[in-house]
């Protein structure tokens, strides 16, 4: 996801990051080095070296920090980012399970009722066009149980 604009807001003590879909906030407390009253941000810009997927800020002391869009999306719990992260984790686990499985790839494909091409798309961690359903089906064929754990967030002062 490309960043369209970025600005710092010292009153809110946060960056305002605009993308094509939404504007996100990222508090100064989530970055390193952190600006302060004695060492404020003097410049912030979209970093072209990161393919416009991040920004760099410069403090008065000369210290620099870089923030990638993934940090912003993770902090804001963006649903599409969280979905992609879940797909990635499931895909990596499926790859591991396929390697360890006594079943041949041809047998796995047959049990899935799909094509070899679709099977290899499922195992491609860069492919985010697949569904969680498809990965769950693959893991089921590999004799895996997948449990979804939902828990309350830890209080801000507690260790997770």
What would you say about this model in short?
34% of the residues lie in helices and 22% in strands.
Write the layout of secondary structure elements.
Elements: E1 3-9, E2 14-19, E3 23-27, E4 41-46, E5 54-59, E6 64-68, H1 69-75, H2 79-100, H3 105-112, H4 116-122, H5 132-141
Antiparallel strand pairs: 1-2, 2-3, 4-5, 5-6
Descriptive labels:
160 residues, alpha+beta, 2 domains, three-stranded antiparallel β-sheet, 22% strand, elongated
Question: What's the pLDDT, averaged over the residues?
Answer: 92
Reported for the largest beta sheet, the result is: 3 strands, antiparallel
Q: How many domain modules?
A: 2
Protein structure class? alpha+beta
Order of helices and strands: EEEEEEHHHHH
The poorly predicted ranges are none
* N/C terminus separation: 29 Å
Strands in their spatial order, largest beta sheet: 1-2-3
Report Rg: 21 Å
Helix content: 25-40%
Number of helices: 5
> How many beta-strand runs?
6
Approximately how much beta-strand content do the residues carry? Answer: 15-25%
Structural write-up:
- The protein is built from five helices and six strands.
- Helix 2 packs parallel to helix 5 (132-141).
- It has two domains: 3-75; 79-141.
- The chain is elongated.
- The mean pLDDT is 92.
- Strands 1-2-3 form a three-stranded antiparallel sheet, with helices on one face.
- Helices cover 34% and strands 22% of the residues.
- Strand 2 and strand 3 form a beta hairpin.
- The two termini are 29 Å apart.
- It is α+β, with helices and mostly antiparallel strands.
- The protein has helices at 69-75, 79-100, 105-112, 116-122, 132-141; strands spanning 3-9, 14-19, 23-27, 41-46, 54-59, 64-68.
